[in-house]
Amino acid sequence: MSKRITNKEFFEKDAIQLAQDLLGKVICYDKEGNEIRYMITVTEAYPYDDYYSYVNREQSGFSHDCLLKEENESGDCFINYNGIHILGSLGNDSRRFNHILIRGGIKIEKSDNQNEYYKLNFEHAEMNLKYGRPTILMEKLFDDKLEKVKNRKYYLLDKSQTNIWLEDYKRVEFEAKKRIGLTNPDKLETNKAEAEKTYDKPFRYYFYPNNVLIKKKG
Fold this sequence. Notes:
The chain is of the alpha+beta class. The protein has helices at about 15-20, 60-65, 135-140, 145-150, 190-200; strands at about 25-30, 35-45, 75-80, 85-90, 95-110, 120, 150-155, 165, 175, 205. It is about 15% helix and about 30% strand.
């Protein structure tokens, strides 16, 4: 469809910038020769020093088993029970990266129309509105059940790794709102002040895919 993103500089950004830049990009998965593509429509930014960042959720096995590994790099992609995570730049710590949660996407398929390369498929369109459905997106992209894909790691910049990659498409205009599903600081027994710093920040970004034109021949 479009050129594969292979430059590390694309990922070496803070969480906010990378979350915005991922909108309109296409995440692709090759399952036994069947290429599945979703245009990214909803993202959430998690700065490395954010109380709500997954790298700071000490009670989470996902944090220790995946996100805090010393060998991690910008451009690493992790698949977990709650969605698809991509690492951005390294923060002021040897292991804590800025990272992005991909919340929503719209499927892109080859078109039957001879004047088009691809078309948007609005099946499960509820995942593509401003809220996103990260678990549904993950299962649809990988065409598999949740328990079979969780805690997988991919390096999106490795050209020899052909199972999952990102393709460039276009920049889009987007809106920003607060993130979804975060525990209200008033309900926390500890670290309330830290949580209040980012709880209401507009770190969720989205656009409506019906405003995107799919590339045509000629």
